[in-house]
Design goal:
Layout lengths: L4 E5 L3 H13 L4 E5 L11 E8 L2 E8 L10 H9 L6 E5 L3 H4 L1 E3 L8 E2 L4 H6 L3 H10 L16 H9 L1 H16 L8 H4 L1 H9 L4 H6 L18 H4 L3 E6 L4 H13 L3 E4 L4 E6 L6 E5 L6 E3 L1 E4 L3 H7 L13 E12 L12 E3 L14 E5 L1 H5 L4 E5 L5 E4 L6 E8 L3 H5 L1 H4 L2 H12 L11 E13 L4 H13 L7 E3 L9 H10 L5
Parallel strand pairs: 1-2, 1-13, 2-9, 6-15, 13-21
Antiparallel strand pairs: 3-4, 4-17, 5-8, 6-7, 10-11, 11-12, 14-19, 14-20, 15-16, 16-19, 17-18
Helix pairs in contact: 1-12, 1-19, 2-19, 6-7
Family: Belongs to the protoporphyrinogen/coproporphyrinogen oxidase family. Protoporphyrinogen oxidase subfamily.
Catalytic activity: protoporphyrinogen IX + 3 O2 = protoporphyrin IX + 3 H2O2
Protein name: Protoporphyrinogen oxidase
């Protein structure tokens, strides 16, 4: 039966994608999107700041949420096609330094260590002594997945196959970069399912599994995507964004919803409760505003799971909504004026692994730094004042240096004392030491912005996949009866591509 009225709870990227695709799939259904904030987009937030230095002035684009996307998400490519965003794309080729050069800053050392970018560079890498023996040994290690294990931590998985040191240095750094979490708590099956599957395909060996042809493995995304010629534009692309930042996705989706005759978008509408209507299968949604409750036949919730748990009547609680621990991150956007020698080496940026002693109060608390101007300089618009005093616009890019430091996550002491632990006088010496340059070669920043992103990335803990299956099962039964779907970063993957796909798949069974 076609739903009469679908309510989408939450106007982040998952909710926007859900409302957009539901409106296309059910043109005769009413769709209402409810968002508690005045703006839509959730964690997608791109803002321009104006900086001047002598005769140079620039509008520099800063991101306080996601900043780059990967072309492997068909759901995202489809959205780019459907929303006509191809001309706004900014792409980084796989051959550029921003794609091939990534670094680690290993606590206790000065400067950066380049990560090998090819099998050949592995042999000349300073990390060769750690990496080569563990890679050569892995295919010969007997299958050692614990009997009947249906999940384990990412750290335990990598330690089992590649050794403890590889797990601490590489595994923890990777998890800092994506989830801002402790790899000893993160579920390998939920966060890195391809590794878990490769071990199974390789009959115990991850490397054998990757080498084995994946004939039997179908893309989980399927083939029914409307991609137009966006796939062509993505040939040879490592990462991409948009001229006006990632928030472009949210603003264009919001515009498309505004023009859809069957969709109503209601911002500043905080959902405060859900209640089953007696004698009917409808659900009443209470709102914090003085408005009467909204009655819906179907609901897609894209709210953070802990928020959803507070909205349910005590007679109808759902399992596992509070099992996932969200990470909090301090994002520091810094813009430096032009310098005669580059501030950082060409590359995407660096990650900082878990220190040997673990997450103690003595740690610097930095998770990593992204060299934004390396991949995203085309977002910045430069104006050069001529002698007549008139400004002429040119897009040159790269003359100012913008970068983003990320702190916090499992370094909780930073989060407890953000204002004192993130001052320029603390951060700039840390940055100089990580980059291996004297502090005196860092000019005073033109812009230094600190944003605390509280509970922003749901880091799935061990057992997440099973728990989410149980949650889905519970939603099929009882009064829920398959009419409520729960999706979003806390359920499936956290990447923007995962969220867009989750929104696209919502309500498929209706
Ligand atoms: C700092 C940072 C960097 C990131 N970097 C990347 C990256 O480079 N690439 C990438 O792919 N991904 C990245 N991510 C991940 C990605 O941005 C998020 O996982 C994704 O945006 C989550 O979208 P969502 O819609 O599921 O959740 P949210 O964005 O949290 O949306 C939920 C919405 O619900 C609203 N809401 C909450 N409670 C209520 C209520 N009671 N009533 C009504 N509305 C409510 C919220 O205001 C919000 O708008 C990053 C995330 C962060 C925080």
């Amino acid at each position: 039966m076609v739903p009469s009225h679908i309510a989408v709870l939450g106007g982040g990227i998952t909710g926007l994608s859900a409302a957009y695709h539901l409106a296309r799939r059910f043109p005769s259904s009413r769709i209402t999107l409810l968002e508690k904030e005045r703006r839509l987009g959730g964690w997608l937030r791109s803002e321009r700041v104006e900086v001047t230095h002598g005769a140079d002035r620039a509008d520099v684009l800063l991101e306080s949420g996601p900043r780059t996307l990967r072309p492997n998400s068909k759901a995202l490519l489809e959205l780019i096609h459907l929303l006509g965003l191809r001309d706004s794309l900014i792409t980084t080729p796989v051959t550029s330094p921003a794609a091939t050069r990534r670094f680690l800053h290993i606590p206790g050392t000065k400067g950066l260590t380049a990560l090998p970018s090819s099998p050949r560079s592995l042999f000349t890498s300073p990390l060769a002594r750690l990496l080569i023996p563990s890679i050569l040994r892995e295919p010969w290690i007997k299958p050692n997945r614990p009997h009947d294990a249906d999940d384990e931590s990412f750290d335990a998985f990598v330690s089992r196959r590649f050794g403890n040191e590889v797990a601490r240095v590489f595994g923890s750094a990777l998890v800092h970069g994506i989830y801002a979490a402790d790899s000893r708590e993160l579920s390998v099956r939920a966060a890195f399912p391809t590794l878990w599957e490769a071990e199974e395909r390789g009959k115990g060996s991850v490397l054998k599994g990757f080498l084995k042809r994946r004939k039997d493995v179908r893309s989980k995304e399927g083939d029914d995507y409307e991609l137009g010629d966006v796939v062509v534009a993505m040939k040879g692309v490592s990462v991409y964004s948009f001229r006006d930042g990632i928030e472009t996705l949210a603003t264009r989706l919001a515009k498309a919803l505004h023009h859809a005759s069957n969709v109503t978008v209601r911002t500043t509408q905080q959902v405060t409760g859900l209640c089953f209507v007696h004698g009917s299968s409808d659900i009443d949604i209470s709102l914090s505003s003085s408005q009467p409750p909204l009655r819906a036949s179907h609901i897609v919730s894209t709210l953070p799971l802990p928020t959803l748990s507070t909205l349910l009547p005590s007679s109808h609680i759902l399992p596992h909504l509070t099992a996932t621990k969200p990470s909090s991150v301090v994002v520091i956007n810094i813009i430096f004026p032009p310098t005669s020698t580059p501030i950082h080496p060409p590359g995407f940026g660096y990650l900082v692994p878990r220190p040997v002693e673990g997450y103690t109060e003595e740690n610097e608390g930095v998770l990593g730094t992204v060299f934004d101007s390396a991949a995203l300089d085309a977002q910045d618009v430069y104006y050069h004042s001529s002698r007549t005093g008139r400004g002429s616009q040119e897009q040159s890019g790269g003359r100012f240096t913008k970068l983003t430091m990320m702190l916090g996550g499992p370094h909780t002491h930073i989060l407890n004392n953000t204002s004192q632990s993130t001052t320029p006088s603390r951060m700039l010496p840390l940055l100089a030491s990580h980059l291996g340059i004297p502090l005196s070669s860092l000019p005073p920043p033109l812009h230094f912005r600190v944003t605390l992103q509280k509970d922003c990335i749901p880091a799935p803990r061990v057992g997440h996949v099973r728990r989410m299956e149980e949650l889905k099962d519970a939603l099929k039964r009882g009064p829920w009866n398959g009419r409520v779907e729960v999706v979003g970063a806390g359920v499936g993957g956290v990447s923007v591509g995962d969220c867009v796909r989750a929104g696209r798949e919502a309500g498929r069974g209706w």
